[in-house]
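Backbone-to-sequence.
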């Protein structure tokens, strides 16, 4: 039993810590509310508040110092002199509340008791002087990020499968990084979470970079690749090869980690990024800049809509019913290159109007884009892409937003699409001549004074032959290779599991059948020998018991249906196919999640933010719950007050309030 003086000191420390936390919380919320009225979006506020610092966070300390901190002896009351483990627990618990978007009071009494018990087991330094210098701000950020990742990894273990998805590269602190997401099933519904950012150098040797990236994913972040069932890597032109090498290495070690496209954008746009042609990469960069230009202002989008009205080969009523035709969403459509080519004249007229009426940077930007779009090389590349990607049109929309039955129909067409592309390659001389003529006519209409070929194109027998050998041929070869790579036999077998969905009218497996939907995942099933019998029972239930009722139309709806509990093998297979990046998610969750993250990144990276702070912005619900967890921890154990009160100042307030730039 501790003496009265010790208890008094503990009470004072607890009181002091709570008062510090109380006033810092009041300051935080007051300034946050004030700032919301000054900005058009709370998210942008969070972004702008990130410290403008181009340096990488240096988490690692000197070996001597780390050894001193980790080797602190236990004190008389049994508390360790190192607070890292306690902070890790606090951060994990805040993440758990943030993921569910609930407060501590929303937990059941039993869960709340377990929560408090977890806090009471934390060990804290008794001596205040030991806390202050031991853990710096950067290490706190690192501990918090690790806590967030640990919670995601725990959810993956419960899933128990996931897929790995990378998005297009972004600049953070003037360095290129790849956003990495994981997709898994949490509480019967697919989820997408940001895991972090991979450093990326296009000039690095392919094998070296592939090995380095894989090491970060598996060793630093702890992703269990043996549980990976899907991979989708956004294509990056020449830099894409290191990602492809890493993907193939994973596939060699874990054959069930099938490679797929992502349903977050149209298949044509997805595959075009892999084409090893400088003109294609340049064209995609220009179109990205074009879409961002119009996406910055609703007024500009309205002007564009008027300018291109009537140029699209579809009724205006159909156009109004398809919000995806909004210019900022064009690249997610299956006919992206068709739309761009068909509306090029309208786009140019809109850009010319902006450049002549606007002033400053907006006018200059419009003029630069107008010049780039009138460039002959851009126009030829666009028209050839439009024609070469024609066989992909129907397939793309189905995978991005189609229902499971449509996806199954399109899966059957994949071999014929590859065959069509192969025949196009065989007849490329004839086809290319027509494509080149179309491009030349379009260029003559939009920029007759600029129809002149490059010196390199003129060095060939004719410019037509130059574009055939340097664009059409490598483009078709790349599309064929990428279709085979993205739609392997394993991927197609995995998609066949969708036939078990009630809306797809599941059928019993015939005794003589060799094509069984569970064949790919036998090793993942708890009772593989009973799979066929259970599937037959599942098919009978939906054809007999629920024939007059509307069946569940999605994977999520099916997984929460009572019949899924009675058929665990079927439920397991549906959870497996639910993580595939190529399968559209309910409420367009994949698309909206990635797009909202891209929007946030677009505003964040311009401030030179550090990547760890950017990552925390995506997981801001954890930070929102952190003060509550800190306060409860200080109530449970006053010894935590000196350290935890500093956490609030050093990390939360610094992250959101310091160096505020509007």
């Amino acid at each position: 039993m501790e003496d009265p003086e010790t208890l008094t000191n503990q009470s004072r420390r607890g009181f002091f810590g709570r008062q510090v936390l109380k006033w810092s919380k009041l300051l935080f919320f007051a300034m946050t509310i004030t700032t919301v009225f000054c900005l058009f979006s709370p998210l942008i506020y969070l972004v702008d508040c990130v410290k403008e610092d181009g340096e990488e966070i240096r988490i690692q300390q000197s070996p001597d110092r780390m050894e001193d901190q980790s080797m602190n002896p236990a004190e008389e009351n049994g508390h360790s002199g190192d607070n890292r483990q306690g902070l890790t627990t606090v951060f994990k618990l805040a993440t758990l509340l943030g993921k569910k978007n609930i407060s501590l009071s929303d937990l059941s009494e039993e869960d709340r008791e377990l929560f408090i018990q977890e806090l009471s087991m934390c060990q804290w330094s008794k001596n205040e002087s030991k806390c202050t210098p031991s853990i710096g701000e950067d290490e706190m950020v690192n501990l918090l990020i690790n806590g967030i990742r640990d919670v995601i990894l725990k959810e993956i273990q419960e899933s128990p499968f996931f897929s790995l998805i990378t998005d297009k590269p972004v600049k953070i602190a003037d360095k290129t990084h790849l956003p990495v997401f994981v997709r898994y099933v949490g509480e019967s519904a697919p989820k997408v979470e940001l895991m972090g950012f991979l450093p990326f150098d296009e000039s690095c040797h392919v094998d070296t970079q592939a090995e380095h990236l894989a090491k970060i994913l598996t060793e630093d972040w702890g992703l269990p690749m043996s549980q990976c069932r899907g991979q989708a890597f956004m294509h990056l032109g020449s830099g894409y090869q290191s990602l492809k090498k890493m993907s193939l290495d994973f596939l060699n070690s874990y054959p069930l980690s099938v490679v797929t496209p992502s349903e977050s954008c149209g298949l044509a746009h997805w595959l075009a990024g892999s084409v090893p042609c400088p003109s294609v990469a340049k064209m995609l960069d220009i179109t990205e800049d074009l879409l961002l230009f119009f996406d910055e202002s609703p007024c500009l989008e309205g002007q564009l809509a008027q300018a291109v009205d009537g140029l699209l080969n579809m009724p205006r009523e159909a156009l109004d019913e398809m919000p995806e035709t909004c210019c900022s969403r064009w690249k997610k459509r299956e006919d992206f290159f068709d739309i761009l080519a068909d509306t090029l004249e309208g786009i140019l007229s809109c850009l010319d109007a902006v450049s002549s009426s606007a002033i400053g940077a907006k006018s200059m930007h419009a003029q630069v884009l107008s010049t780039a779009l009138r460039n002959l090389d851009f126009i030829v590349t666009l028209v050839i892409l439009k024609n070469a990607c024609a066989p992909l049109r129907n397939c793309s929309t189905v995978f991005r937003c189609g229902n499971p039955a449509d996806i199954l129909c399109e899966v059957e067409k994949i071999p014929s699409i590859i065959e069509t592309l192969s025949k196009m390659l065989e007849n490329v001389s004839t086809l290319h001549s027509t494509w080149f003529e179309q491009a030349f006519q379009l260029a003559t209409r939009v920029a007759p004074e600029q129809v002149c070929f490059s010196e390199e194109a003129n060095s060939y027998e004719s410019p037509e032959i130059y574009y055939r050998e340097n664009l059409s041929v490598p483009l078709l070869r790349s599309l064929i290779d990428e279709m085979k790579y993205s739609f392997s036999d394993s991927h197609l077998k995995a998609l066949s599991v969708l036939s078990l969905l009630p809306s797809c009218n599941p059928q019993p497996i015939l005794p003589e059948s060799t094509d069984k939907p569970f064949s790919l995942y036998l090793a993942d099933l708890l009772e593989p020998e009973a799979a066929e019998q259970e599937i037959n029972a599942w098919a009978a239930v939906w054809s007999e018991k629920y024939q007059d009722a509307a069946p569940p139309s999605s994977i999520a709806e099916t997984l929460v249906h009572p019949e899924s509990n009675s058929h665990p093998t079927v439920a397991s297979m549906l959870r497996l196919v639910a993580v595939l990046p190529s399968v559209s998610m309910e409420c367009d969750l994949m698309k909206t999640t990635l797009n909202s993250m891209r929007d946030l990144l677009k505003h964040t990276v311009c401030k030179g933010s550090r990547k760890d702070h950017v990552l925390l912005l995506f997981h801001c619900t954890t930070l929102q719950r952190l003060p509550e967890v800190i306060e409860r921890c200080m109530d449970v154990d006053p010894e935590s007050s000196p350290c935890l009160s500093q956490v609030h100042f050093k990390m939360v307030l610094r992250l959101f309030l310091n160096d505020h730039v509007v």
